[in-house]
Amino acid sequence: MDILKEVAGIEEEIILWRRHLHAHPELGYEEHETAAFVSEKLRSFGLEVQEGVGGVSVVGVLRGAKPGRCVALRADMDALPIQEETELPFASQSPGCMHACGHDGHTAMLLGAARVLAAKRSELSGVVKFFFQSAEECSPRGGAIPLIEAGVMENPKVDFVFALHLWPEVPFGKVGIKAGPLMSASDRIQVNVTGRGGHGAAPHAAIDSVVVASHIVTALQSIVSRQMNPLEPVVVTIGRFIAGQRHNVIAPTAYLDGTVRTQNEAVRHGLPQKISQLVESIAAGFGASASVEYEFGYPTLHNHPDGVRMVVEATSTALGEESVFMLDQPSMGGEDFAYFLDHAVGAMFWVGCKGEDTTSFPVHNSRYDFDERALVRGTAVMVQLAVNALQEA
What we know:
Elements: H1 2-8, H2 11-23, H3 32-44, E1 48-53, E2 57-63, E3 66-76, H4 103-118, E4 125-133, H5 144-149, E5 160-171, E6 175-177, E7 180-183, E8 185-194, E9 198-199, H6 209-227, E10 234-243, E11 249-250, E12 253-262, H7 265-285, E13 289-298, E14 301-303, H8 305-319, E15 324-326, E16 345-354, H9 374-390
Parallel strand pairs: 3-4, 3-5, 5-16, 6-15
Antiparallel strand pairs: 1-2, 2-4, 6-16, 7-14, 8-12, 8-13, 9-11, 10-12
Helix pairs in contact: 1-9, 2-4, 4-9, 6-7, 8-9
C-alpha cells in the first residue's frame, strides 16, 4: 500500500490537472495547448521530453539509475465534438468540445505516475516511457499508428506496455481486467443512395431515396440477426441519415453513415460483401441505386495473458486483492491502444469511476462526469505496474 500513500500525497495536484484539462479540451490532432501543458509538467519532473511525436503527441522518458527492462505507459489526450451540459464549475470553455470520455483523467493520472516515478529514479533499473497520445477518437487513422511509426516502441525496445480507461460500468474502487478481447474492431460504413427527385404530392413520378434508405437501415439489422452466428458479437449502427431540403420535395439522394463492431477477424472481413449485396439489392428493388464505402478502423484490442497477470499483481499490491475485478465480457467500443499490443506484451485495464454522488451518464454523453477519487487509484496502479515491470525476469 506504500505507493497508494505516495500517490495520495499528490492527489490534489492530479485533480487540479484534470480540471484544467477538462476546462480546456482540444479535438484530435489539435491538442497543442494540452501537449504544451503536459510537456511543461514532465520537464518540471526532470524527464526527457519529446514533443510533436507523430504529429501532436508527447513522449516522456525516465531513465533509472541502472540498466534494465523498458515499460511504456500510455494516456490519450483528445476530447470529443460535444457541447458540454454538466454545469461543472470547471466545465469546458471551448464551445462544442468536451472531455466526455475521461481522457482528461487519463492524462492527469499519467502525469501523476510520471511525477511519482521520477522521484524513485535512483531505485529504478531500466527505462519508463510515457506516451501522451493524440487523436484516439479519430478512427480509422488515430494517434497510435503515427506514434509507433515514429519509433516510440524502439530505442530502447519496449518490453511491456499498459494503458487504463476510466469506466463507469466497473464498480467504484475496482480495477476491471480480462485476458483476450477487451475492446472491439471499429469500422465505418457510408452508403450513398441515388433515386429520382420529385414533388411530394406525386411520388409515383419519383424514386424516393428516403424510403429506400429507410429500408436499408432496417434491413442492415437482419445481417446481425439472420446472417451472423448468434454467438459472435456484431453491431451495426447507423448514426447519421442525411436527405432532402424541403418538406414537400422528394429527395433524389440520401446518405447513411454508421459503424460496424466485431471481435472476430474472419467475421469482420466477411461483412463488407454482405453489406454491399444487401444494400445494392434493396436499392435495385425500388429502381434506385446505392454504393457502399467500407472503411476498416481499429482492430480488436487483445490483452496478453502475461499483461493481465501483471495488472492483477500490481492492483493487488497497490490497492489490495479485493480491488481486482475480473471482467466476464469485453466492450463493443473501439480503442487504438490495440496497435501497441502488437509490439509488446501488455494490457489495458478499466478503472471503476462511478461514485455514489456521480450521475450515471455513459461516456460520449454531454453530461458525462466521473468520481475524481478514482484518479489516485488509477495512478497508483500505473506506478506499481511500472515498478513491477522493470523487475520482471
